[in-house]
TrEMBL record:
It comes from Collybia nuda. This is FAD synthase. It is an enzyme of class 2 (transferase). Gene3D superfamilies: HUPs. The keyword Transferase applies. InterPro entries: PAPS_reduct_dom, Rossmann-like_a/b/a_fold.
Length: 349
């Protein structure tokens, strides 16, 4: 990355006077104030490869270049349990591109977010009706793991006194935050600086696309909010409606696709014939869908990402191709940003 070119672009956008430019100016002003307060060597950035911190890294690189800084950018990466390989690849690519001196800080508990939201049963948190959770992960939200990671970071880099974070107001726990907040009592002392706190989902994508900022390729596959492979799926609001296509109609790019409804109809026609098979071989519609979901999403305890059903699957139906999703930037309702999160019940033990 040519950080001087980035500085020219982001400050030109900030001075454009349009709605996005005003948000960019606000964010750059907050970054500049933080740098003036703490000094360039004492401000770090929290970077996990998501769209929000990608925006923030681009802005931070521009702000530092405008101050003629030539040193690597200090950063911290706190992994979630079972991160997507594609996301970690993007993190490494970004670190090289922006000269980001990224400290990988995995807390001892290896939990920095709630990968499930347990149901309540008799006042006890449960992953499901059979297996009790070891602790109230739905309430903890990974706070202890985050605190442990920041303790490690403060010990390793005591001169860092402020961390830039890509939190937005619509994020969990973001509603009451301001641009600058100190960590809570009992936590290692850092000022948390939130330059894009007032940005919306669409603002983030407008910025990334307007300035051609590289972002994680998972966002082009229908993911809108990235976390652990345990709890992150393509956003169902971005599923492409293929109901007008005939079953297994070839796509322009090769391959084929079917809609869930057509798939179910086809499966029913192959498992229920005339005369019907023996009762022991009948499959209910619920069972069909359950088996399809099981085949297309490997149980999180045994995977490091999602897989799809293969042509060698034991099912006695034609191989089921991938459903297609629009890219994240085509999501029209930002309130649905996290609709692809928390759709599975898996707990890392």
């Amino acid at each position: 990355m040519n950080c001087r070119k980035i500085a020219l672009e982001v400050y030109e956008l900030a001075n454009s006077g349009d709605a996005l430019g005003l948000l960019v100016k606000e964010a750059l002003d907050v970054i500049d104030e933080g740098l003036n307060t703490h000094g360039q060597d004492s401000v770090s950035i929290s970077f996990n490869g998501g769209k929000d911190c990608t925006v923030l890294l681009h802005l931070f690189a521009g702000a530092l270049a405008r101050k003629n800084s030539t040193r690597p950018i200090p950063g911290i990466y706190i992994p979630v349990p079972s991160p997507f390989p594609a996301l970690e690849e993007f993190i490494e690519e970004s670190a090289k591109a922006y000269d980001l001196d990224l400290f990988h800080c995995r807390p001892p508990s290896e939990e920095v977010e709630s990968v499930i939201t347990p149901a309540q049963k008799n006042g006890t948190n449960y992953v499901d009706s059979r297996k009790p959770a070891s602790h109230a992960v739905g309430k903890a939200k990974g706070a202890e793991g985050m605190r442990q990671a920041l303790d490690i970071y403060k010990t390793r880099f005591p001169h860092i006194s402020a961390i830039l974070i890509g939190t937005r107001r619509t994020d969990p726990h973001g509603a009451t935050l301001s641009h600058r907040n100190m960590t809570d009592n009992g936590w290692p002392s850092f000022e948390r600086i939130n330059p894009i706190i007032n940005w919306s989902y669409s603002d983030v994508w407008s910025f990334l696309r307007k300035l051609s900022v590289p972002y994680c390729k998972l966002y082009d596959q229908g993911y809108t909010s990235l976390g652990s492979t345990f709890n992150t799926f393509p956003n169902p609001a971005l599923l492409i409606d293929e109901t007008s296509r005939s079953y297994l109609e070839p796509l322009p790019s090769g391959g084929s696709i079917i809609s869930p409804g057509t798939a179910l109809t086809s499966v029913m026609s192959t498992t229920h014939s005339v005369p019907p098979p023996p009762e022991s071989e009948l499959v209910s519609p619920t069972g069909i869908l359950s088996k399809y979901i099981t085949s297309t999403h490997v149980h999180p305890l045994g995977s490091n990402g999602h897989t799809t059903v293969s042509s060698t699957d034991e099912w006695s139906v034609p191989s089921l191709p991938l459903l297609r999703y629009k890219p994240a930037y085509e999501l029209l309702d930002g309130n649905l940003e996290r609709s692809g999160r928390g759709l599975t019940a898996g707990l890392r033990t």
